[in-house]
Design goal:
239 residues; alpha/beta; Rossmann fold; nine-stranded mixed beta sheet; two-stranded antiparallel ribbon
């Protein structure tokens, strides 16, 4: 399996020495679980794309501080690239920004949420149980977002949900898996990111988020979902 990770952000200067990039985080999440998969990172925020998409069995779009629905040239180009991959039947995974971008590119809608920021470890209800998910009823994931998927694209099935974020994950059988939460985040990184942005939130909210970090999160489990989804749909077979 050859998977292209489309990295859609550059970490804050203070975070890069310890955490590198979102692409690197996904290599750490998926690498041990994939048994020899070839993972390559492409910095689409800088216009870097795979030379030959047909050489890849699947694609993953990372998170980003940017808005998936914005008109920045690189974001418009990434939405068009996602539509092209979709027409070609290439399995795609999107996380946070990537989740929202896939929804927006494929006929749904992403935008700023009236609910405000979602931060810290959140619990989500599992709404469907396709083969790549198994029998879990709830999962906990680290969240860091104020945009949400407001309308699902045609053919999408809601996968995860809670009261704060109704469309917290969706999938289009055989084609797309999109997840709002961050399976690739460690608590250390989430805490460091929170510190960088701390001026945006009240002391009370920061305390609530810090308290949530004591709840175990299921990043590794959801990493397995991603692995199974890509494996099952390598040849565009529906799960």
């Amino acid at each position: 399996m050859k998977i292209a990770i489309l990295d859609a952000d550059i970490l804050h200067d203070s975070l890069r020495p310890d955490y590198g990039s979102y692409g690197l985080m996904f290599e750490h999440l998926l690498g041990p679980a994939t048994g020899g998969w070839q993972l390559s990172v492409h910095h689409v925020i800088d216009g870097q794309y795979p030379e030959d998409p047909q050489q890849y069995d699947g694609f993953l779009i990372t998170g980003s501080k940017h808005d998936s629905f914005a008109d920045d040239q690189w974001i418009v180009a990434l939405r068009q690239y996602a539509r092209t991959l979709f027409r070609q039947g290439k399995p795609m995974v999107g996380v946070c920004f990537g989740h929202q971008l896939l929804a927006h590119a494929l006929g749904g809608r992403a935008g700023r949420s009236d609910a405000g920021w979602g931060l810290g470890v959140m619990q989500y209800r599992v709404q469907q149980q396709p083969a790549f998910v198994g029998d879990r009823k709830t999962v906990n994931l680290i969240a860091s977002h104020r945009d949400q998927v407001l309308a699902l694209p045609e053919g999408a099935q809601r996968l995860l949900s809670n009261d704060f974020c109704p469309n917290a994950a969706f999938y289009i059988p055989g084609k797309v898996l999109a997840i709002q939460g961050h399976p690739e985040f460690s608590v250390d990184y989430a805490r460091a990111l929170l510190h960088v942005r701390a001026g945006q939130w009240s002391t009370e909210m920061l305390a609530q988020v810090e308290s949530s970090f004591s709840v175990p999160h299921d990043g590794s489990l959801v990493g397995q979902w991603i692995k199974r989804f890509l494996e099952q749909n390598k040849n565009n077979h529906e799960d």
